[in-house]
Design goal:
heterodimer, A: about 850 residues, alpha+beta, four-stranded mixed sheet, 30 helices, B: about 450 residues, alpha/beta, Alkaline Phosphatase, subunit A, 2 domains, eight-stranded mixed sheet, two-stranded antiparallel sheet, 15 helices, 16 strands, about 15% strand
């Protein structure tokens, strides 16, 4: 998330350097000769209204359905020069009517675009809402660092990025005794003399005298500085041209942004749009929407205009040559594979082959149930010759008790089951409530509905604790949106969201849905009392939108408001909208979370950041999967099964030369460190020595004893993130302070390495009297059998011949009384290897 | 004379090399000295002072201290702005400071204040954490590196200790789903800091798990290591995984710390006289500052100390006043005295040991506080203007650079921003802020954005 507030002066320098660097290694992508057999003109048709309107055209090389870079050596002609003509690639209106513009490019290729011109008889007027605000926004006058700051700059304050035109109008025309505009002599208006630095302006010069933007402002003033009006046409949608193009590293490309208004008119607003790249490793942009491809992969450029967002996507294939048969012959289990392979082919990436059975069994146990398979389970699976054994294993695992523990734990992360914020009995009730739903495979929409509309006593209806953790309408709204739609609304609390389409009014409308939620027993110190709370809903009461001083009619984001007089629970209205099959935010969010569980990375990354300016790495796949989940009536297990059965999930994690540089298109599995709790439980299951969980660490650093967890409790069975455990903390468990997956860390750190090497978790468990070491020593096994057993226990595979020989050699040289030490060392060596700490 | 301004990547870890070889690569390898030789040469005056001793201690004051109640007092402003405290004179004629920082007054000739720092990010903690430590906003999917990670990348490690350490642990997450700026970012996780994960003020403090269990002899450790290598040589699936490579590097680093007496003793606070420990303050902040000094002394190039770990706890510089936060007035009970003691001790100690010239101490925070005291007796987030401090590393003490307006709300003179702050740190470290790092996709990425400059007035 960035805050759009500063000007990065270094940017142009950087683009230049990048361009210079990238200009040369075009050789890299020379392997694919692009056949620009045709050209295309964008937009394909336009309506120009009034003499001030215009439309820039872009002409692109086209190869079948693929749009390539900009075509060169263009010649434009208009079938009726009386209607419109083209000047430097821009269509200028001349008179009402229709005309066809024909563009000719080298090689006899040509394309057409239809132009309709109307309203030439009307006097053109600049509108405050439609023109003045965009000029001010584009020039950055209302950025956070300038007059858009909460308290303005130099006594002049504007709403951030123009989200409040009425107030801005008053500030520009009425404040400072009206000095900011001079109706009789617009050029003397402070608004212009400052921005053009005719008078000293700390912020610098933004508008040149004589520029079009200068003309917009001065003509608006000269025409009487008319205010924004209720009847003004509002922005309905943004269109971006081109939506998707395929380019090479070093290519340039322009983007066009067209606004469609509620009165049916259109306007080329490219000059007023703000552009940012979603992935600067692939594509960079300047402030005019001139894009440079700097790397391989896919990226998008976001165009922001008047609180709406549009995306232009760019694909830049990797410099590989992959025969088409690779894709035609590739195994496809379901539509996941179709959509992944389609993208891989487009990007010239080769899919890795299928994983071995040993790789698969360890992976699928860890991802599905958070456990590693026992030696017997591994042996049985490895010798099984039936073709459907992977499918059967998947079904079996989805039905296991540990799978319930695993997902109950993951959803407890998201719902913040945290003993630093809830009393022990509430923690327990909250957790049990979640676990029960997971155990019944309750459809996701139903679970969420129950949370959102929860009422009653916190120790009885566990779901009510959601409102124990979040005790005011604003945090309730923000957390509902974050947890169930992966949308962060917090920005919109103070101003329109700078990275998404949500407005400040929408924020308060949304939060107002919770204004009537109350509880007996809110507040107070989390360490005291029984923590019982009873959640109920008042029949009246509203949250005030501070900007207007009035309640904002309660409404779920972009849906219809609740009827004002209705005394019913507004949360029901919200739940209806939120969990509706039509609410893409909802289905995409849960789909992305589930996908990320099986690949270590969401289709959208970070996994819970689904704002519109952060597109998925494979948009078609996310769309198809979330549609599937809706079709399956939010049956999470159905989606899990589909993913697990796909060839994509079952690919090897071994990188090929032709896919090693990618980390988001799922050409292979990506190795990743086990999550803290899974790793802990793996250590316990290998050694056979459980950990004690008997204290909860509170916020002030003190601890409290707990007797919730009998001996043998696994980390994934804990209710609570506040349970003391150096191991879990060091390995980055989710602390559950925020509804954010970012709180969990799966990165290997130096301190973790010290802990597995020297710390008490692995070492003490191995040397414990009841450990696996003693157990195996009693079995009278040969050295080779011991090595095999250790490998099966820890790595779910048999040792390679070389490994076996080397270990047997070491073990056979050990004296009998040192056998125990040596076996401990063998376990230690295997359990500190990346193959144990990671899954692959 | 070494040419330390050559912007080449310092070798790290060198997977597969023996420990002896480790000691001979990097900066020292270029002149063929092993570490003991280097130390001997240094003692004999054979190594130029200041060439490779540049280091930085970055104090990060989580929560955002109030400029108006600490370093930039406005005694003539109305009471709702000036707050409850009075300014006092200090050893430096140009610096007046709050009465709740009396020990600062005694070392005011050694540090300088920049009273006109501002940033353009949102007034949320994470935005400031990230900008003030990396010099940039998080944008376009590019996570920019912490200044210490840049040092780690360009200079590599000097001794067996990691080049970049965070005490006592990494800061927690704020509310914004943003990176917090305490990582290697696009330079790679190999340049993430070593985070201690322990409280050095605890009586039983030691680096967690620094040594193997007592009963293990050298031969057993050697057996473990060679066994581990057997397992790790087989499966090839990890080679394209940055995390897996990082794990290997961490094993190498861990082995170096474990086997180096000097490295282990650097973390051993019991080697300090009790009087010194008490001078810093027997609390987490004080002992972290002391540990920072010991680490720099032993060759760590960059230490970041988080004075608080999160803003979710009751105690931090985040003085909103309303529960659970402390108020402006309550700062004098615990937070200010603790910081006052620790900071003045650090400056004094570095000075007395002759380390201050080479060690820059930067006192930073994510933002300042609102000029007006709120109804709860607190002040809220305010990135528009706040004060940061610099000492050592060539900084001339006793100066005030920049000024805020009469309300402490906006810079009145010489505004500086996070890019300038980080550029100043690079200058203190002897790095050329105009040189380039390999950014995402190998694109050259300047150390700081174009136009950002060290605050030259600070350097005498």
């Amino acid at each position: 998330m960035s805050y759009y507030c500063n000007r990065i002066e270094g940017f142009f320098g950087l683009v230049l350097v990048a361009a210079l660097l990238c200009g040369v290694p075009n050789l890299l992508s020379a392997d694919k000769k692009r056949e620009a057999t045709a050209i295309v003109v964008l937009p394909e048709k336009s309506v120009l209204t009034g003499s001030e309107s215009s439309q820039r055209l872009i002409v692109l090389d086209r190869d079948g359905g693929q749009l390539l870079g900009e075509a060169k050596e263009l010649h434009y002609s208009s079938s009726n020069e009386q209607v419109a003509a083209v000047l430097d690639g821009v269509v200028m209106p001349k008179g009402n009517g229709r005309t066809t513009i024909t563009v000719k490019a080298a090689g006899g290729r040509s394309a057409k675009t239809e132009i309709e011109v109307k309203g030439m008889e009307l006097v053109s007027e600049w509108s405050f809402r439609r023109h003045v605000i965009p000029v001010i926004s584009k020039e950055g006058c209302n950025m956070g660092a300038c007059h858009g700051a909460i308290s303005g700059k130099g006594g002049f304050r504007l709403s951030l990025r123009g989200y409040d035109p009425e107030t801005d109008f008053n500030r520009i025309t009425r404040e400072a005794r009206g000095r900011r505009i001079e109706l009789s002599d617009p050029g003397r208006s402070l608004l212009l003399t400052k921005a053009s630095t005719a008078l000293k302006h700390t912020g610098g010069r933004f508008i040149d005298v004589g520029s079009r933007d200068y003309r917009v402002l001065s003509e608006w003033i000269a025409a009487g500085a008319m205010p924004p009006q209720e009847i003004d046409a509002r922005l309905e949608s943004l269109e971006i041209f081109p939506k998707l193009s395929t380019l090479k590293v070093g290519d340039f490309q322009s983007i066009l942004v067209r606004a469609n208004y509620t009165d049916g008119t259109q306007e080329d607003v490219t000059r007023w749009a703000k552009f940012t790249s979603s992935n600067e490793a692939v594509v960079t942009t300047d402030k005019n929407g001139r894009v440079t491809i700097v790397g391989n992969g896919e990226g998008a450029v976001t165009a922001w205009f008047s609180s709406q967002i549009g995306l232009a996507r760019f694909s830049s294939p990797f410099p590989n040559k992959i025969p088409a048969e690779v894709f035609t012959r590739a195994v496809r289990q379901n539509f996941i594979d179709d959509l992944v392979l389609e993208q891989l082919q487009r990007l010239h990436l080769k899919p890795s082959p299928r994983s071995t059975d040993a790789e698969f069994i360890r992976r699928v146990y860890i991802d599905t149930a958070g456990i590693i398979p026992s030696p017997d389970e591994t042996r049985d699976f490895l010798v099984d010759r039936s073709p459907d054994k992977r499918g059967r294993l998947i079904d079996q695992l989805l039905g296991r008790k540990e799978t319930v523990d695993y997902w109950a734990y993951r959803w407890s992360d998201m719902l913040l089951v945290n003993g630093r914020r809830l009393r022990p009995e509430s923690v327990k009730a909250y957790y049990k409530w979640i676990r029960e739903r997971v155990a019944n495979n309750t459809p996701w929409d139903k679970i969420v509905r129950e949370v959102i509309t929860a009422k009653g006593e916190s120790n009885v209806n566990g779901a009510t604790n959601f409102f124990g953790v979040h005790q005011d309408p604003e945090t309730m709204a923000e957390n509902v949106s974050q947890a169930f739609m992966s949308l962060s609304l917090a920005c919109a609390k103070c101003h329109d969201h700078p990275m998404d389409k949500w407005t400040n009014d929408q924020y308060y409308a949304f939060a107002n849905l919770f204004a009537r939620v109350r509880a007996k027993g809110w507040g107070g110190d989390a360490r005291n009392g029984d923590g019982k709370r009873t959640i109920y809903v008042e029949p009246r009461g509203d949250l005030i939108q501070p900007r207007t001083g009035k309640p904002q009619p309660a409404a779920p984001l972009d849906a219809e408001p609740v009827s004002q007089g209705d005394p019913g629970d507004r949360r029901v209205h919200l739940a209806n909208w939120l969990t509706s099959p039509d609410n893409k935010h909802f289905s995409r969010s849960i789909t992305n979370r589930i996908w990320a569980n099986y690949f270590g990375r969401g289709l959208v990354d970070p996994v819970d950041d689904l704002r519109s300016s952060n597109p998925a790495s494979n948009e078609a796949l996310l769309e198809a999967l979330s549609d599937y989940l809706v079709e399956q009536k939010f049956d999470q297990k159905a989606l899990m099964r589909l993913i697990l059965q796909s060839e994509t999930y079952q690919r090897s994690s071994e990188a090929l030369y032709e896919n090693r540089d990618e980390d988001r298109f799922f050409s292979r599995q990506y190795p990743r460190r086990l999550m803290a709790e899974v790793l802990h439980d793996a250590v316990v299951s290998v050694t056979g020595v459980p950990s004690d969980f008997n204290a909860v660490a509170l916020r002030d650093g003190s601890t409290q004893k707990t007797d919730f967890y009998p001996k043998g409790t696994r980390a994934l069975e804990l209710y609570d993130s506040a349970v003391e455990s150096y191991f879990l903390k060091t390995f980055g468990r989710n602390e559950r302070e925020l509804a954010c997956e970012c709180e969990r860390s799966n990165q290997p750190s130096l301190i973790q390495v010290l802990h597995v090497s020297n710390g008490n978790t692995i070492n003490d468990k191995l040397s414990d009297k009841s450990s696996v070491v003693d157990h195996l020593l009693k079995e009278n096994m040969s050295d080779a059998q011991l090595v095999e057993e250790v490998y099966l226990l820890c790595l779910s595979r048999m040792p390679e011949k070389g490994e076996l020989e080397r270990f047997v050699k070491i073990l056979s040289a050990v004296k009998a009384d040192e056998k125990k030490d040596a076996l401990e060392d063998l376990f230690w060596a295997v359990m500190t290897s990346r193959e144990f700490l990671f899954q692959h | 004379m070494f040419d330390f301004l050559a912007e080449s990547k310092a070798p790290i870890c060198g997977v597969g090399r023996s420990r002896r070889e480790f000691l001979q690569i990097g900066a020292l390898g270029s002149i063929g000295l092993s570490l003991p030789q280097y130390l001997a040469a240094k003692q004999a005056g054979g190594v130029n002072k200041g060439n490779d001793n540049k280091a930085c201690i970055l104090i990060f004051n989580l929560g955002g201290p109030s400029q108006l109640d600490l370093w930039d007092m406005k005694p003539d402003a109305p009471s709702e702005i000036r707050g409850p405290f009075k300014p006092i004179r200090t050893k430096a004629p140009d610096i007046d400071i709050s009465e709740i920082l009396p020990l600062h007054a005694k070392v005011a000739d050694k540090f300088s204040l920049v009273r006109s720092c501002q940033h353009s990010g949102a007034a949320v903690h994470d935005a400031g954490w990230q900008m003030m430590q990396t010099g940039r906003r998080f944008t376009g999917g590019v996570e920019t590196p912490h200044a210490g990670a840049v040092m780690s990348y360009l200079r590599g490690r000097k001794t067996d200790l990691p080049p970049f350490v965070v005490l006592p642990e990494l800061m927690g997450r704020g509310g914004g789903n943003l990176p917090n700026g305490q990582a290697g970012g696009f330079l790679g996780k190999a340049h993430d800091p070593f985070a201690l994960m322990a409280d050095p003020s605890k009586p039983d403090f030691k680096v967690p798990d620094l040594l193997p269990p007592d009963q293990f002899g050298a031969s057993r450790l050697e057996r473990r290591r060679s066994m581990r290598e057997i397992v790790d040589q087989t499966v090839k699936n990890f080679e394209a995984s940055e995390d897996a490579r990082l794990l290997d590097e961490n094993f190498q680093s861990a082995y170096r710390i474990m086997t180096s007496v000097e490295a282990r003793s650097a973390f051993d606070l019991s080697k300090e006289p009790e009087k010194v420990r008490e001078r810093y303050g027997m609390n987490r902040v004080g002992q972290c500052f002391l540990l920072a000094r010991r680490l720099v002394e032993s060759g760590v190039r960059f230490v970041t100390v988080n004075t608080f770990l999160t803003v979710f706890n009751e105690l931090s510089w985040d003085i909103h006043g309303s529960k659970p936060f402390v108020s402006v007035a309550q700062m004098k009970d615990m937070i200010a005295p603790m910081y006052d003691k620790a900071y003045s001790a650090l400056i004094e100690d570095l000075f007395q040991r002759g380390m201050l010239d080479d060690t820059m101490v930067a006192g930073l925070a994510e933002f300042g506080r609102t000029p007006k005291v709120n109804p709860a007796g607190g002040r809220d987030h305010w990135p528009q203007c706040f004060t940061v401090s610099f000492a050592g590393g060539g900084v001339q003490g006793g100066q005030v650079v920049g000024a805020s307006d009469p309300m402490g709300g906006y810079p009145a003179e010489r505004p500086v921003d996070p890019g300038d702050i980080v550029a100043t740190i690079f200058r203190g470290l002897g790095l050329n802020h105009e040189s380039h790092l390999p950014g995402p996709a190998g694109r050259p990425f300047p150390l700081v954005d174009f136009g950002k400059e060290p605050i030259r007035e600070l350097f005498g």
